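Troubleshooting log. The previous structure file for this entry was overwritten by mistake, so regenerating from the original sequence record. Sequence copied from the archived sheet and checked twice against the printout by T.R.
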Amino acid sequence: MQSSYLPEPAALMAVFSFAIVAGAPMLWFVGVSRFFTVPASRQGFLRAGRRIMRATGLVFIGRGLRLATERMHG
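Regenerated output below.
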């Protein structure tokens, strides 16, 4: 008689869920750090920094205004 261990579906789901939840942020931060270790990428980002900050600020202001008006009217 051959005995093979098959884990329960809930255990498999827990392992894969943890791998996804832990793995996705790790991959993101490794990718970002690798991107900024390339001198050309880093210099390009530093040159465009002010424009990037302004654009990001406008997006946040727009989202904040939208959230504020949705709560007042709905």
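The radius of gyration is 23 Å. Archived copy saved in two places this time.
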